[in-house]
Specification:
Blueprint: E1 2-7, H1 17-31, E2 35-40, H2 46-51, E3 56-59, H3 67-76, E4 79-82, H4 110-114, E5 118-121, H5 124-133, E6 139-141, H6 149-156, E7 170-173, H7 182-191, E8 196-199, H8 203-211, E9 215-218, H9 228-235, E10 239-242, H10 258-274, E11 295-301, H11 308-316, E12 324-329, H12 335-339, H13 350-360, E13 364-367, H14 376-380, E14 388-392, H15 402-412, E15 416-424, E16 432-436, E17 445-447, E18 449-457, H16 460-464, H17 476-488, E19 492-494, H18 510-513, H19 528-544
Parallel strand pairs: 1-2, 1-3, 3-4, 4-5, 5-6, 7-8, 7-9, 9-10, 11-12, 11-14, 12-13, 15-19
Antiparallel strand pairs: 14-18, 15-16, 15-18, 17-19
Helix pairs in contact: 6-10, 17-19
Length: 553
């Protein structure tokens, strides 16, 4: 591939986190036999861009890019924005506003972001803030910062420069930039009786000193999109005391440290670079959601409270985010025990946990004193006033373009859509073929039923409740497809799940999160044999009452 890389500065001029990431990305792309032309933003002209019309454009920091060139790019070229901060805000600092949401009059460069093929965010926190302020932008999350192999190897070495073996006290970054919070970090050390040492200088010297410190203290006063130095402290195996407005601390991988974290970032860097071209869309004619195309997303809380925050973030990061997020809580005697402060620090009871959930931005909470099992959440959907409903199992984390995928597919072939489809091979549930995240498909595929995540028009629920389910204990996915086919002539499909771009998938961690000890198909209360026997019973009932399978069509 051929790329033009636009930035205000490159590493030769200024060594900052953004410039370091840009430098690694450029060199990694070049190592993959891509051609990359670097140009300063103030030097870009329409003539330059038009002379290289076959090149795709990567825009990093672009404060010095002229309005005329921005307009030319958004009207004529494929481009991505590799975002390092918040250049869609006049302040470039979302922490000045409640919940990081700026009033619209503070938004700038809106069309430039909205028309980009992708806006690449550094972390999930970073991505959620961008999406909150720019709901029409196609935000994708890198999820990692970038280091070269040489830098990662240097981080891995013990005492790399051979000059010292121990530094007494905690490491504090000595920054002249006020919002980096040096004073707050020193204040913490003094308050907690910790020895500390202030450090600045070349990157190698900072890392060497950091390696032999007791820990790292960092209290930035503004939102840090990722914070390379915090990640580097963990790579050095240090304890880290920091504020929560740092993108890195909200990532799943932040619990790792030392060599394990270093190799994780090496692998994720390669994965990010290898799929970089997928951030450029083949078709840029985005359709703006009409009011009638809004989505209500319904989540379920029962025995996997640890997944909920990640689900909410994934929904807010959708290129077509839901109008509202609802939560259906089934009564569970063990929920308080399962919470126990383990999944959300400071929350020891369900009531406390619900208060925390409300802060996440969940719009409606159904807190039940009864376990309605699988059907309750489908009943909740009847209360929605949006055209579309998206329902998720508690082990389902959608990719950032899942709603967009379903909306595009449902316009082409109206029906029920899901992320894991089943094609039955007999008049029993097993054996069957699977389509979707378990077996990726490149085009829309018709199936007999689907599960893990559903997307459909709200009116489909009218058909589900035409007849009483044969059992409340199993088979809501079977019943939905059967009843909609029988009473509404509605088919069931799986939208495309391309192997090389999981942002389109409805479930990113199905195998990882769906096979634990509380899985209905794999737990101690209901045996594996009984679970599938119940599903066979539901299949037989539906077939006896008019369900037609694909194999019989």
């Amino acid at each position: 591939m051929k790329y033009i890389f636009i930035a205000d500065f490159f590493i030769d001029n200024f060594i900052g986190g953004g410039e370091l990431c840009n430098d690694v990305l450029i060199k990694q792309l070049q190592n993959k036999n891509n051609e990359v032309i670097k140009i300063y933003s103030h030097e870009v002209t329409e003539e330059f861009l038009s002379s290289l019309s076959e090149y795709k454009i990567i825009v990093a920091n672009f404060i010095n890019l002229s309005e005329k060139c921005k307009k030319y790019i958004l009207d004529n070229r494929q481009y991505v924005i590799y975002e390092h901060d918040h250049k869609y805000l006049k302040t470039r600092d979302p922490s000045l506003f409640d919940d990081y949401k700026a009033p619209h009059h503070m938004i700038i460069n809106e069309e430039f972001y909205n028309k980009a093929d992708s806006v690449i965010a550094q972390s999930n926190l970073h991505g959620s803030v961008i999406q909150k302020n720019l709901p029409k932008a196609n935000v994708v999350v890198a999820g990692v910062s970038l280091w070269s192999d040489e830098q990662l190897d240097f981080l891995k070495q013990r005492n790399p420069l051979g000059s010292q073996t121990y530094v007494d006290g905690w490491f504090v970054l000595d920054s002249k930039i006020i919002h980096k919070g040096t004073e707050k970090s020193v204040e913490w050390c003094k308050k907690n009786g910790k020895k500390y040492h202030l450090n600045s200088g070349k990157w190698e010297d900072i890392i060497e000193t950091m390696k032999w410190s007791d820990g790292f203290v960092f209290f930035p006063q503004t939102l840090e999109t990722m914070s390379r130095i915090v990640v580097e402290a963990r790579m050095c195996g240090l304890k880290v005391v920091c504020s929560k407005n740092i993108g890195a601390v909200h990532e799943d991988w932040f619990k790792l440290k030392g060599e394990e974290l270093i190799e994780y970032h090496r692998n994720k860097r390669d994965e990010f670079v290898n799929k970089f071209n997928s951030f450029f869309l083949q078709n840029k004619d985005f359709e703006v959601l009409e009011e009638t195309e809004d989505v209500t997303a319904i989540l379920t809380l029962y025995k996997r409270p640890q997944n909920l925050i990640e689900q909410v973030i994934a929904l807010k990061n959708q290129t077509k985010p839901p109008k509202e997020i609802w939560l259906w809580i089934n009564d569970n005697d063990s929920l308080d025990d399962r919470l126990g402060g383990k999944f959300k620090e400071g929350c020891y009871y369900k009531e406390d946990y619900i208060k925390e959930l409300e802060k996440l931005g969940i719009d409606r909470i159904f807190d039940n004193n009864h376990n309605w099992k699988f059907y309750g959440r489908f009943a909740a959907g009847l209360l929605a006033d949006t055209k579309y409903i998206a329902i998720y199992d508690d082990d389902t984390i959608p990719g950032s373009r899942w709603h967009e995928n379903c909306l595009k597919s449902i316009k082409e072939k109206p029906g029920i859509y899901g992320t894991a489809g089943v094609i039955l091979q007999s008049e029993r549930y097993n054996p069957h073929l699977r389509v979707g995240w378990p077996n990726p498909n490149n085009k829309i595929e018709e199936v007999d039923l689907c599960g893990h995540g559903w997307f459909f028009e709200r009116d489909c629920l009218n058909y589900l409740w035409r007849e009483k389910p044969v059992t409340w204990d199993n088979g809501e996915d079977i019943a939905l497809s059967f009843m909609c086919q029988k009473h509404g002539k509605i088919k069931t499909y799986i939208p495309p799940h391309p192997k090389d771009d999981k942002s389109w998938w409805g479930s990113l961690k199905g195998m990882e999160l769906g096979t634990d000890e509380v899985a209905t198909s794999n737990n101690k209360v209901i045996s594996h044999e009984r679970f599938f026997s119940e599903r066979d019973f539901v299949v037989k009932h539906c077939l006896d009452n008019g369900w037609r399978l694909l194999k019989d069509a």
